[in-house]
Specification:
Two copies of one chain form a homodimer. Chain A is of the alpha/beta class. Chain A has helices at residues 10-17, 21-28, 36-49, 55-62, 78-93, 107-119, 136-140, 166-179, 195-210, 229-240, 254-267, 300-315, and strands at residues 67-72, 97-102, 124-127, 147-150, 159-164, 185-190, 220-223, 248-251, 276-280, 295-297, 323-326, 329-331, 338-339. At the A-B interface, helix 4, helix 5, strand 2, helix 6 and helix 7 of A face helix 4, helix 5, strand 2, helix 6 and helix 7 of B. The first copy, chain A, binds a DNA duplex through residues 7, 9-11, 19-23, 25-26, 29, 32-35, 38, 53-63.
Chain lengths: 342, 342
DNA sequence: ATAAGTTATGTGAACGTTCACGGGAGGAGC
DNA sequence: GCTCCTCCCGTGAACGTTCACATAACTTAT
């Protein structure tokens, strides 16, 4: 292909090949009603002139832009980055493009992004919702506009969702701690405003209840600020300096775990000796710690792919706005990895 | 705003408000030649009908799509994720959108992505180039098409680049090891095919030379496979089982560091006792390790922002395809953080 | 040889905007 | 009362495609 020289249109190719622009279209899109010789002549002109079709124009006429929007709340966070990678991979393999937006956990920015992306005529939206009231979805978007929420649920008819089996996963995590012999178990969990946190807390409580263990409120750290490492650190400090401190903790995300680990260091407590820890989210570092940190791994990439498949299904009218629950996986870095089936 | 009901166009709004579509356009875009009453009437109609402008159509006519393309080689990698976050943030603040593509370090997929994005009429491209020959840039894109490379350079006139001061950073890293008293220093570095690796190796050599220290080839691990944790682990195993092993190692990326840490564990060697390590890339975990891992932090988000600023400058014709070098920062997690000025 | 069918190509319109005009209403100046 | 200007607003064309037809040139059947 020759050097593309600015903006060449179908008409110029048509002139070069001595045919009409429709014929050019036929040649390019590999349609039937064209003789091989003409096709070759057109294709040569295309190549000579360095013509590249303008998909935007095609989309305007044809109606489908083959673009979906992805709104995450924090791209720099590995959970979201991996989800985004999954979305991109699946979309790409199905001929769709992904426009990316970052809400920074800010509902206003999220809403703005939804608006902007819709005006760009994306065909659907995958959202990792920020905290707060999402009723704008009802007013800002057409009633049948395809939306898939990831990690958190959006309570609207036309919104599908892809979620973790949070309750089961949390239960499994606690059961692992119990299997190590722990009975005094606490937890540091993000705000109960978040569905994931609520469900994980429920799983925690259930597991404790099933094992006849007491859930002590002074061993529970939760709240708005807990979502950041700093807040988590503070929560952990409080829990671990209690007169009767727990011997094990469950945390509900890797960001929280960072804070807890810092607290441990500051208090001079050793993991595996003074206190055991299990965390949600597998981070690249969890296996590098000494001792390795057991985690509930979320199938991040799968979640992105599943959401994209569902969304494209909805776009193409062959799928529904379901709710999908994916299992977590317990990684202890010791024996075999255990798939949570629950 | 009322519930958007499918696809409303300017003409329908015009009919509703009893004006022409041009007047609607004026009202929406806040132009001058319109009376306040008419404007209000139109805006009410817009609101009543739930009209949302179709930016795609506007872009087709107006010429500028306000979209840029971002091609990274591995989104799941935190370096790229953070760069992407920076790009998105800067683009967004300047009214541009970002279409994301992932090349998976595959030159073919990268080229495909460049093609597709160009056909979508993105106004410019930010690329974290995969390994290999990028001459397709010359043939597949118009001569003046704005491109900015990140992390690696693209040797074409119209390509700007945003890079780390690799040599200086590597030198600083080695000097830090020297300051700890080390004289037997090795390095595990990705393939010298990569510009970054070459430059970091040069920095390494320079620092060693300046300190009158010997660079021993059996203490150097490099090559194609080294870029993956597995390959890095193998390299480290070879280096650390040498009869006379080094007491300190520099690694050129966090992925490599993962491999080296695994090798250390397998060999039963303790960091801070048997061998010291310094790494490129600050990962969330580097400070969590025991002892904390000193790193050269790359200004990932800044790099993304700087690349985007440059690109938009080029797009809007007020900037050039420069080469920008950003400094790394030595994080020892001990004393104050040291800014590499070099 | 004529009607009908097939193949290959061209024409007009449309997608939803914005740009470049054109033009009417009303006031100011002579 | 006429011109000229300003303020609003409308019309036609264009952006680069694709879709739905129309049409020309050949085949094939009758």
């Amino acid at each position: 292909m020759a050097r593309t020289s600015g903006k060449v249109t179908m008409k110029e190719v048509a002139a070069e090949a001595g045919v009409s622009y429709q014929t050019v279209s036929r040649a390019i899109n590999g349609q039937e009603d064209i003789s091989p010789e003409t096709r070759d002549r057109v294709l040569k002109a295309v190549s000579d002139l360095g013509y590249r079709p303008n998909r935007m124009a095609g989309a305007l006429r044809g109606g489908n832009s083959k673009v979906i929007g992805l709104i995450v709340s924090d791209l720099a966070n590995s959970f979201h980055a991996e989800v985004a990678a999954g979305v991109e991979a699946e979309a790409n393999s199905r001929g769709y493009f992904v426009i990316l937006a970052n809400s920074s956990e800010d509902l206003l920015r999220e809403r703005q992004a939804v608006s902007n992306l819709f005006e760009r005529r994306v065909e659907g939206l995958i959202i990792a919702p920020a905290q707060g009231d999402h009723s704008y979805i009802e007013t800002d978007l057409p009633a049948d506009f395809p939306v898939v929420a990831i990690n958190r649920r959006l309570e609207y008819a036309h919104c599908g969702s892809v979620l973790l089996k949070n309750e089961e996963a949390a239960r499994e995590a606690v059961e692992y701690l119990i299997s190590l012999g722990h009975t005094k178990i606490g937890a540091v969990i993000a705000s109960p405003d978040l569905m994931t946190s609520r469900e994980r807390l429920t799983g925690f409580r259930n597991a404790m209840y099933n094992a006849d263990l007491e859930v002590r409120s002074e061993w529970l750290g939760t709240g708005r600020s807990t979502i950041h490492p700093d807040g988590a650190r503070a929560s952990a400090m409080r829990i671990l300096t209690a007169s009767d401190r727990p011997t094990a903790l469950m945390t509900s995300s890797s960001r929280i775990t960072e804070g807890v680990l810092i607290a441990l260091r500051e208090l001079g407590l050793k993991r595996g000796v003074d206190v055991d820890l299990i965390s949600f989210d597998r981070a690249p570092w969890s296996s590098l710690l000494e001792p390795p940190l057991p985690v509930i791994e979320q199938p991040t990439s799968h979640m992105g792919r599943a959401a994209t498949r569902m969304l494209i299904g909805m776009i193409e009218g062959i799928g529904l706005a379901e709710e999908i629950r994916l299992p977590g996986r317990l990684l202890t870095n010791r024996e075999e990895e255990i798939q949570i089936s629950a």
